[in-house]
Each structure stands twice: as C-alpha cells, then as structure tokens.
C-alpha cells in the first residue's frame, strides 16, 4: 500500500465519520475458502511436467462483521456442498 494514501486516509477519516455514532460504524471482511482446491502436484523435478487441470469451484465465502465498539455477529457462510 502506498504510504501517502494511508496517511491521507488517516488524516481524512475523522472528517468522514463525523456525525456518526460510534456504535453505527461497522466493518465487514470476507474470505474465500476453496475447500477442494488442493494442489494436484507440489515440487516438480527439472524436466518433468506438472499436469494442470481445471480448478475446483467448490468454495465457501465467509463474512465477518464487527462494530467500532466491539460488537460482532456470527460469521456468515455462503456456499454449497
């Protein structure tokens, strides 16, 4: 991340959230988990080929929601088996 961008946000964030109650400020983070996406090969010796196949599409998306005062929801899991 560019340090100038980070410093810009650090300076301007108080102005952006001004007027909002702290309990109304939330953050959502998500992560994709490819549970069948294990590699089909690891280290390959020189001269040998690693066969690449179609990537597995079985995945879960997990979302985490937290407030600025420490409230949190149970993680939201989206996916199918």
Short description, anyone?
By secondary structure, the protein is α+β, with helices and mostly antiparallel strands. It is built from one helix and three strands.
How would you characterize this protein structure?
This protein has one domain (21-79). The protein contains one helix and three strands. It has one helix at 3-16; strands spanning 26-33, 60-67, 76-79. Strands 1-2-3 form a three-stranded antiparallel β-sheet, with no helix packed on it. Strand 2 (60-67) and strand 3 form a beta hairpin. It is flat, with a radius of gyration of 21 Å.
List the helices and strands and how they pair.
Elements: H1 3-16, E1 26-33, E2 60-67, E3 76-79
Antiparallel strand pairs: 1-2, 2-3
Tally of domains: 1
Structural class: alpha+beta
Q: SSE string, helix = H, strand = E?
A: HEEE
End-to-end separation? 36 Å
Strand arrangement in the largest pleated sheet: 1-2-3
The number of helical segments is 1
Average predicted local confidence, pLDDT:
82
Quote the beta fraction: 15-25%
Shape: flat
Q: How many β strands by DSSP?
A: 3
> How large is the radius of gyration?
21 Å
Task: Sum up the structure in keywords.
81 residues; alpha+beta; 3-stranded antiparallel sheet; 17% helix
């Amino acid at each position: 991340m560019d340090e100038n961008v980070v410093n810009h946000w650090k300076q301007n964030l108080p102005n952006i959230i001004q007027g909002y109650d702290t309990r109304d400020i939330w953050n959502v983070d998500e992560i994709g988990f490819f549970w069948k996406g294990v590699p089909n090969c690891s280290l390959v010796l020189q001269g040998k080929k690693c066969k690449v196949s179609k990537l597995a599409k079985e995945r879960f998306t997990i979302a985490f929601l937290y407030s600025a005062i420490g409230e949190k929801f149970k993680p939201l899991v989206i996916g199918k088996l």
